[in-house]
Design a protein that fits this description.
By secondary structure, the protein is mainly alpha-helical. Helices cover 72% and strands 3% of the residues. It has one domain.
């Protein structure tokens, strides 16, 4: 009965750890896509020759007073291409995914480690009990 319980416990802990890793991976993927959208330059519209080249949302260069920047109204097309509310929505979705993933992964990993620790402790206790029994037999043999 005890072995069956331990196997179920280990399987459940491994499953929690795997789900946690998957949720953390999904949140990480969302973060990578958002980081790429913030850092990489892009072009608005399709890839035809008339499309405007847009600078990175985070690292745009202000090339003087004549060059448009993200704050200028002339860059409305670029701003419409990368919409902040959508990006913040995806970032908001990644928060519960990352928190849930961290909780599940930590819970599963801790449970597995505690199971290993208890197994090591039981083995050490068994070895100590066998040594004590052998020592008691020697002491009893000496007394006789």
């Amino acid at each position: 009965m005890s072995e069956h319980f331990e196997q179920d416990f280990a399987t459940s802990a491994q499953r929690r750890r795997a789900w946690g890793g998957a949720l953390l991976g999904a949140a990480g993927l969302i973060w990578l896509v958002l980081a790429y959208q913030l850092i990489a330059p892009f072009s608005e519209g399709d890839d035809s020759s008339g499309s405007r080249k847009c600078q990175s949302m985070l690292f745009y260069e202000d090339e003087g007073d004549d060059a448009p920047t993200w704050a200028d109204a002339t860059w409305d097309d670029c701003r419409a291409e990368r919409r902040w509310p959508e990006m913040l929505g995806w970032l908001g979705l990644s928060v519960p995914l990352s928190v849930g993933g961290a909780v599940l992964y930590t819970s599963g990993a801790t449970s597995l480690r505690m199971r290993e620790y208890m197994a090591e402790h039981r083995i050490a206790a068994r070895v100590a009990a066998e040594k004590d029994a052998a020592r008691a037999e020697k002491d009893a043999a000496r007394k006789d």
